[in-house]
Amino acid sequence: MLIDIHCHANLYLVIDEIIKEAKNVGVEKIVSVGMSVLGLERILEISNAHNMIYPALGIHPEEIKMNKKIESQLDYAIAIIRNSKEKICAIGEIGLDHHFVKEKEFYPLQKKIFETMLSLAQELELPVNLHTKGAEKIVFDMLPSYKIPNVNIHWYSGPEEFLNTGIDRGYYFSITPAISYSPAVKKTVIKVDKEHLLLESDGPVKYSGKIGTPAMIREVLNTISKFKEIPVEELENQIYENTKKVFPKIF
Ligand SMILES: [Zn+2]
């Protein structure tokens, strides 16, 4: 059984077909992660309508660029997250981004939102799903100040130094379909032990021009199996156990 622990299920035009395809290759659960303030309620709706979709809520670090009203909407977002604490399995997708967000004037507020989200994870005793692109050092420096059940680093492609820090601290790394072409993702797969790997599509993000879907994680599993020289079935069972540890609320 496969579980896609990071998908933006609310961004597909037609979700039914995506779910059917996923089931056909043995994907049985999908975690739909948050992004925009306005998308939070949509994620709750979509998970109510489809029993294999589980919500995670949070504000994505690139939202700072897309949404000029974000600061004034923050209390509203916090209220939705607190009110949904029984339903959600994680706080995410949250973090910092200094790669796609180059404008330094956004950084103080981006950090403030991230701190707010980390405090919520601590308060609600939920794991976090983290975006760290181009800001790996700052994110990794911030994390020890919070008591959070588990840390999941999504699509890690940063410097090896912080990959090593994450490994030492026992963080979980989720691998996307970019494993088929990205040397940085391959390095993550090689270095992280099988007890700390998870699978994700990050759909509908595109891979080599093709819209990402949860069904693609079957191929991600096969590629990891090849790179790590671990039989597919053994790896599938191991990753299932890892997923149970990090996201107990979806079981
Ligand atoms: Zn994402």
Question: Overview of this structure, please?
Answer:
44% of the residues lie in helices and 16% in strands. The protein is an alpha/beta fold. It has one domain (2-250): TIM Barrel (Alpha-Beta Barrel). The strands form three sheets. The chain has a five-stranded parallel sheet with strand order 4-5-6-7-8. Strands 1-2-3 form a three-stranded parallel sheet. Helix 2 links the parallel strand 2 and strand 3. It is globular. The two termini are 12 Å apart. The site of zinc ion has 5 residues, from loops.
TL;DR?
The chain is of the alpha/beta class. The protein is built from ten helices and ten strands.
Top-tier CATH class: Alpha Beta
User: What is the fold named in CATH at topology level?
Assistant: TIM Barrel
Q: In terms of structural class, how would the helical and strand content be classed?
A: alpha/beta
Low-pLDDT stretches: none
CATH homologous superfamily classification? Metal-dependent hydrolases
Taken together, the total number of domains comes to 1
Number of helices: 10
Q: Choose one word for the global shape.
A: globular
Largest sheet: 5 strands, parallel
What spatial order of strands do you see in the largest sheet?
A: 4-5-6-7-8
Helicity, as a percent range: 40-55%
Mean pLDDT: 97
Order of helices and strands: EHEHEHHEHEHEHEHEEEHH
Please compute the radius of gyration using only Cα atoms.
17 Å
**Share of β-strand residues:** 15-25%
